[in-house]
TrEMBL record:
<feature type="domain" description="Methyltransferase type 11">
    <location>
        <begin position="47"/>
        <end position="125"/>
    </location>
</feature>
<dbReference type="InterPro" id="IPR029063">
    <property type="entry name" value="SAM-dependent_MTases_sf"/>
</dbReference>
<protein>
    <submittedName>
        <fullName>Methyltransferase domain-containing protein</fullName>
    </submittedName>
</protein>
<dbReference type="GO" id="GO:0032259">
    <property type="term" value="P:methylation"/>
</dbReference>
<dbReference type="GO" id="GO:0008757">
    <property type="term" value="F:S-adenosylmethionine-dependent methyltransferase activity"/>
</dbReference>
<keyword id="KW-0808">Transferase</keyword>
<dbReference type="Pfam" id="PF08241">
    <property type="entry name" value="Methyltransf_11"/>
</dbReference>
<keyword id="KW-0489">Methyltransferase</keyword>
<dbReference type="InterPro" id="IPR013216">
    <property type="entry name" value="Methyltransf_11"/>
</dbReference>
Length: 264
């Protein structure tokens, strides 16, 4: 059974502690949203698992949201449907209830990845769409030089793509370019705006920072600030300030209903 924290958070991060700034800093980026919408296709009924504050939920479809964290449910805009208090591993819906299912930046929080993926496939007639990060690609990002513990925490939490495919069968994996002015403040969104990560709320809105102790995190930030002040960051990475997109670890994983699961 998935353990849940005081506010209902079911994963390894405590969103009762770190989730207060998510609605402001983790806004849906329209270009990433377009990729998700294309993947769900013509689906009219969509399940959003680990829905958080409602980012990336299509506004022109019938969306059912599932979110275990009370603090995240409280940040949902009033025009969004009230989220169901449940976890991915135990979805309270009959088989084949939805045309499509989606989850964004969520699967690394699940206590049981296989069970959550099986549940998503069970309740979905059409595509299962997963926006996640490929841990094998995280070292592309310059933050690995400044905050190696943050990147290693991310790499240890995000499941390999092969682990997803093992449950869902054949999947389509597409890299999602991150725009320079991305408004969804995950770490790589700041690839060309490094000063943004000096903002403590920006860091708090990236859950991997919560796995680094305060003293270590402060040292990471001090090093970045010093390199920005003396021009070291710009000498090594300054071209990124004008690079329109960055091909980092962000990927869209899509399972079509014809796929054959390979779970033992």
């Amino acid at each position: 059974m998935t353990a849940r924290r005081d506010d209902g958070s079911a994963g390894d991060a405590d969103y009762g502690q770190i989730g207060a700034s998510y609605a402001a800093y983790r806004r849906p980026d329209p270009r990433i949203a377009a990729a998700i919408l294309s993947a769900v296709g013509s689906a009219r009924t969509i399940l959003n698992v680990g829905a958080g504050a409602g980012s990336y939920e299509p506004v022109d479809r019938q969306v059912t949201a599932v979110e275990p964290s009370e603090s995240m449910r409280a940040q949902r805009p009033t025009e969004r449907a009230t989220a169901v208090d449940a976890t991915a591993e135990n979805l309270p819906f009959p088989d084949r209830s939805f045309d499509a299912a989606m989850t964004t930046f969520s699967i690394h929080q699940w206590g049981d990845l296989d069970a959550g993926l099986r549940e998503m496939r069970r309740v979905t007639r059409g595509p299962v769409v997963i926006l996640t990060c490929d841990p094998a690609l995280l070292d592309r990002f310059w933050l690995a030089e400044y905050a190696p513990g943050v990147i290693s925490a991310e790499a240890g939490r995000y499941p390999p793509i092969a682990a997803i495919a093992r449950v869902l069968g054949d999947v389509e994996v597409t890299g999602v370019p991150i725009p320079l002015d991305c408004v969804d403040g995950f770490n790589e969104a700041y690839y060309g705006r490094p000063e943004a990560l000096l903002d403590p709320l920006a860091r708090t809105s990236c859950s991997a920072w919560s796995f680094v102790d305060e003293r270590t995190a402060a040292a990471y930030v001090d090093r970045l600030a010093a390199d920005l002040a003396d021009g070291g960051w710009d000498r090594r990475h300054g071209d990124l300030r004008t690079q329109p997109t960055f091909d980092g670890s962000l990927v869209l994983v899509v399972s079509r209903p014809a796929a054959t699961p390979r779970v033992p």
